[in-house]
What we know:
Elements: E1 13-22, E2 25-35, E3 40-44, H1 51-58, E4 66-71, E5 74-75, E6 78-81, E7 84-87, H2 90-97, E8 100-103, H3 115-125, H4 131-144, H5 160-172, E9 178-182, H6 190-205, E10 209-213, H7 217-223, E11 226-231, E12 234-239, H8 241-246, H9 251-261
Parallel strand pairs: 3-10, 3-11, 8-9, 9-10
Antiparallel strand pairs: 1-2, 1-4, 4-5, 6-7, 11-12
Helix pairs in contact: 3-4, 3-5, 4-5, 5-6
Amino acid sequence: xxxxxxxxxxxxxxxxxxxxxxxxxxxxxxxxxxxxxxxxxxxxxxxxxxxxxxxxxxxxxxxxxxxxxxxxxxxxxxxxxxxxxxxxxxxxxxxxxxxxxxxxxxxxxxxxxxxxxxxxxxxxxxxxxxxxxxxxxxxxxxxxxxxxxxxxxxxxxxxxxxxxxxxxxxxxxxxxxxxxxxxxxxxxxxxxxxxxxxxxxxxxxxxxxxxxxxxxxxxxxxxxxxxxxxxxxxxxxxxxxxxxxxxxxxxxxxxxxxxxxx
Length: 262
């Protein structure tokens, strides 16, 4: 994938006619979407609309059935061979994922590792970066997410919000070009949500390219450059927060927002 220090100016994510089914259930029905470099996009929609599935397709955690997904111009999950395409081996896909950070609903921290060790694990174990250099970066990231005093704490000693902030720091430790967030606050108690959203606001302000599946309408209104509403596996409506959230044109968007804002 293109290095972070290059001058690549094309789309960070480009999805073309993406289809995905689970058995006989078609979850994505021809998604066309472009995420520009430095843009923050929020995906909204009811549960089952295909948002999370689409996010997982971007780094090939889910294999698409038709269409193409490119990140920084590189085809994800497939390589050209003899005039056609072949699905990449897992090792090849894993190499592509190094530049794509992903934060899930559930934190997936290693329970036997401290917060600092969780953040350091992938850069040291996967990228083979010098341990001292990674440690310095990890300490800086934990400080950035407000957990400078929790470096030696194990996940069981942290609140859900703190664990999610460690998970964000862990993803950032790989210095990704793109960050994907799959409903990062949905598993948190309400009083813990704001701390995680504050970290994401700071990340957006720093210029990180982000795609966020969320039900946090206030966050989308404040931070997103573009809001996309999905329903039934298709994109119903997209535009600026003012266009989609304040003046939705489609009845399904209007109905969804009325329920959420109520």
